[in-house]
Design brief:
Mean pLDDT: 93
Low-confidence stretches: none
Number of domains: 1
Structural class: mainly alpha
Shape: globular
Radius of gyration: 21 Å
Largest sheet: none
Length: about 140
């Protein structure tokens, strides 16, 4: 005889596992879409600024070096990634300054590079990410007069 008294508990575990798997899949797809979009945008910005290797936008870490170089910094600053916390903060400052200069080269206001800082305000991180993605899309594909 089959005991059906605990059948509901087994189904709820399966349902929770399925929901977590679906959520993980959605998160991976969203992250992949953001990565592809940002790589395309930075590659286009690199081409418009006549950067020698715009395809570096597709390579993790090398894309940071590319942004630093387009902003007038040495690519060697990317090695700050190996210094926990203080190196990351310094690289973030260099990245914001580099984006500021890049945006101004494309005739956009440099202060738009400050949008990612909104992410430090709790619960506004997603808005900062979306806002910065919109900005780099505009900088890449829309000429400012």
């Amino acid at each position: 005889m089959v005991d059906v008294t605990n059948l509901g508990a087994g189904l709820s575990i399966v349902a929770i596992a399925a929901a977590l798997a679906a959520l993980t899949l959605v998160a991976v797809l969203v992250l992949l879409a953001v990565y592809i979009y940002s790589a395309l945008a930075w590659m286009t910005i690199g081409k418009r600024l006549k950067y020698k290797y715009p395809w570096l936008a597709w390579i993790p870490v090398a894309n940071i070096a590319m942004i630093l170089e387009m902003g007038g910094f040495s690519w060697l600053w990317v090695f700050l990634l190996i210094v926990p916390v203080l190196g990351w903060l310094a690289l973030m400052v260099f990245g914001i300054i580099a984006c500021w200069k890049i945006f101004e080269k494309r005739k956009y206001p440099g202060w738009l590079a400050l949008i990612p800082l909104i992410g430090f305000i709790p619960s506004l991180g997603a808005f900062a990410l979306v806002g910065f993605l919109v900005v780099i899309g505009l900088v890449a594909w829309r000429n400012m007069k």
